Each structure stands twice: as C-alpha cells, then as structure tokens.
UniProtKB/TrEMBL annotation:
This is ABC-2 type transport system ATP-binding protein. The keyword Transport applies. Residues 2-231 form the ABC transporter domain. SUPFAM superfamilies: P-loop containing nucleoside triphosphate hydrolases (SSF52540). GO terms for molecular function: ATP binding; ATP hydrolysis activity. Belongs to the ABC transporter superfamily. SMART domains: AAA. Gene3D superfamilies: P-loop containing nucleotide triphosphate hydrolases. InterPro entries: AAA+_ATPase, ABC_transporter-like_ATP-bd, ABC_transporter-like_CS, P-loop_NTPase. It holds the Pfam family ABC_tran. It comes from the Bacteria. Coiled coil: none annotated. PROSITE patterns: ABC_TRANSPORTER_1, ABC_TRANSPORTER_2.
Amino acid sequence: MIQVRNLTKSYKYKKILSEATLNIEGIYGLIGPNGAGKTTLMRILAGLVSVNEGEILVESDKFQSKDLKSVRNNIGYLPQDFNMYPKATVFECLEHIAILKGLKDRKERRNRIEQVLEQVNLLEATKQKVHKLSGGMRKRLGIAQVFLTDPGILIIDEPTAGLDIFERIRFRNLLREISKDKTIIIFSHIVEDVEFLCTKLGIIKEGKVLAEGTPSEIAQTSSGLVWEIQAHPDHLPEIFKQYTVIDIKQQDYNLLDIRILSEQKPNKATPLKPTLIDGYLSIINGWGIEKDEPIKI
C-alpha cells in the first residue's frame, strides 16, 4: 500500500496540488478533468518531482518529497507516449535500457529481455524497428522495459490513449494479467479504462481530492440523480442547457432516450441505476459534497 498524506505542490504562485491524501492499493485509478493535477501527482509518485509539503508512505516506510528517490528502483513508470530509440530494433531498445538499469551480464541481460518480451507477447517482434510498431505494440514495449527490473509499483499514464478498440482491449487484459503482487496506479481522464481495470479510484479536480472508493461506491454517490427522459431531437439544445447529459440513444426517427443527471426529478423522467461515469460526473459537479471535505467511502 502507498499512503499519500497532505501533499501540496506549487509552481511559483500557482498551487497545483492542495493537501492531497490518498490510500493507494491494488489496481488504483486516479481520474479527473484536464488540468486537475494528475500529471504533477504522477511525477511526484514516480520520484521525479519534489513537493512543498506532505509525505508518502510506501509499505509503512515514510518518505519525504526528495527521499522518494531512494525507492525509485522499485517503481516502474510508463508515460503516455513511449517512443524511445525509434530507429533501433525492439531488442536493441530493451538492451540499452537494461544496461542503463544495471543489468551488466550479457547472458543474463539477454535472458531477461526474452522473458519480458514473451510476457507482453512481443517475442516475434524482436527485430522490428520501434518506429514501425503499432500504438498497442509500443505500449507493450513500454511495459516490457518497465519489467526489466520487476518493480513492485507500476505507474501508467493514459494507458489506452491513441489505441484502437482491439489494442485497447488487449492492453487492458495485459494489465490485468501483470497486476498480481503489484501495485498499479493508472492516471486517466477516460472513465471506461478505470471502470474495467481498477479496484479502487480517486477523483481529483483543481488539485484537490474530491472522493476515493471502489468503482461501485463511486457510482452510488449519484444514486437518485440519474434519470432517463424521452424527447424529440429538436428539443436537444434546451435539454443540454438544463441538464448534464450523459448519453443519448435514438429510439426512432422522432424520439430519443436521454440519460441525464439532475438533483430534481424532471417531468415524466424514469430513475436509472447509477454507473461509474454518473458518480464521477456528479462528484465533479459538486453534488452532495462538502466543499472542503473529500468523500472517503
């Protein structure tokens, strides 16, 4: 488990994180809109950025901001865009990274590279140039370079950004497979990714943690707020002005089924079972939340 306690980070006069507190375990997802402070928190956890205030506890060991560098060898970090050494082959890329990570014995290094390539299903791509790999294959290569040292903590930024639907499913399944005995932290603004993968979530907005809990617990925060109304397509502009619209399905040419969030029941509306995206949006909108007190579920 990783405990984040009251982290505060400012750049010049702008506060990016404000007393962020999280209890990270299992496959943990941190979601929030763009500009919420996710990237800054991610770089802090990866040991790349210091903080002004706060502390991080990794498996009960306490670290101040700069001291987190001492556990960096147990942290694997996969940025959103992994495209190192584009003109090198997959094997050459991993061999260079392995040398940088301290794997000096040539035979041991080769065996380890083959192991991680097999683990991420890239063994047949050993001689391919990195720049010729698909987006999904580059993501898997990124996981392979992380696993050269078998870290206990894996930090992944926007895991399925830029992937087609088949690569997205394959990469999600890979993360599921490798999650045994590891803490995986996923930073994303795509709610569907964390809904499928994560056992626990944190929601952040404008540098503040608004809520933390399981996906089902987050979903339940919107209980009594989710409705379905039916309307003619011509009425959509007015509906968008009045409500937070989640989804629209066309029933026939003249009738739409519209999923909305509303604190008050609209006329002729049908209540719906809340989902994670409903809970996320209700929390982001501030419904049912004390402004200075995050929801701990």
